[in-house]
Amino acid sequence: MTPSDLRTAFIAELIAVAPDLDPVAIADSDHLQDDLGLDSMDFLNLVSALHKGFRLPIPEADYPRLTTPAKAVAYLTEMLAR
Amino acid sequence: MPSLGADMDEGKLVEWLVKPGDHVTRGDIVAVVETQKGAIEIEIFETCEIGEFLALPGQTLPVGAPLARLVETACGGDVPTPQAARQPLPNAPTPPPPAKPAPLATTGQAPLASPAARTRAGELGLALEMLSGTGPGGAVLLADVERQAQAVPLPAAQPAADDRPKGKPGLDMAEMRRAIAAAMSRSKREIPHYYLAHEIDLQAAQNWLTARNAERAPDRRLLMGALLVRATVRALAKVPELNGQFQSEPYSPSAAVHCGLAVAMRGGGLIAPAILDADAMDIDAIMAAMRDIVARTRAGRLRNSEITQGTITVSSLGETGVDALIGVIYPPQVALVGFGAPRLKPVVHDGGVVPRLAMTATLAGDHRVGDGRRGALFLAEIDRLLQEPETP
User: Fold this and answer.
1) Which of B107, B332, B341, B343 has the maximal Cβ count within 10 Å?
2) Do A59 and B214 touch (CB under 8 A)?
3) How does DSSP assign A2-70, residue by residue?
């Protein structure tokens, strides 16, 4: 998957967790919790969806690497290349 | 049309999930009603057979209006009976019954009322004769007028259905704000609150969570919120009078613990549905119930029991919140527990000052039910339980 594909997939999972978000309005640097208003339950649901969709373990220690779409795409790219 | 809280006066039937002739068991979901809290699934209160429908999807009905006739002798009558429509339901937004028969002014005279009440009733277009007064000699007071004003939505405040700002299907943000305002006004008017705060060291709970989650796939991981709910529910065993609904005197606490959870809606607004029988759940069951109820709250698919049967509420600010919240009790409950955002703070631990995760827990309690000393015991018990998270 290209970073662009990954971004599309990540945004799709994000919208599934928070259907009221407008996919077009989400910036790569938006903080999921501070800017987009996700709470800890939403974030856990997002991690669960990414875990299932990409078959990655995503331990809690890696949560700080998922705080914005840009960081998340970089993280997913790195993990999937392993 | 069942009452789905002190703040509801009407609801719109959205759809029937049964048809005439269907056999239903108490607790089955039979219909969906749209309210200020979104679409609510309505559970049947009797085991019986559905007779004829008395209301059709799309109709808006006042609380107490019959929706359908139930057949079979065991359940007898309408849902609810037409008389019930005119009687204040236990948690309907009606004024408290006058303590004594109101000696209304003699025929031909205006009813007794305070000047402020008279002015306000005039502004609102309410007839004083229609209000039951709680003042001396049954006089109508300003509070009586305000109470009635909230019970009866004013036409002006009720924009046409199509104009309403929509947060999401079935959720009218302006209506929800009114519902919250009505419930909180009633709380501040009727409940003599006392407030307590206590800082709790969460490091032991966090360490336990981290170790536990490390060996679990994401969909089985736990959140600190689940530990906080479990500790709250368990602590009630020590101070049971904080768990219940204050419907009438004498107050009697509830045996079951239905733990309300304040769920923030991302578009604004707040709904506090209850996790039923939370006292019987282990930590995984509480976490699963929280995931389920938060998802259904946001999707607008709660059940009427979850909306009306809460016996205590937990409001948690989560990771990105501020230090503490001083809660407003959700009537007719008698206590609200607030958890501030957990943060690393300098804490004295084992004789030294070290950075540890800590959080301020608060209690808003109802003085009609008890005093701060008991409330303090309750917060101390929550603290104690959070120091031993491994206890199942």
Assistant:
1) B332
2) yes
3) -HHHHHHHHHHHHHHHSTTS-GGG--TT--TTTTT---HHHHHHHHHHHHHHHT----GGGGGGGSSHH
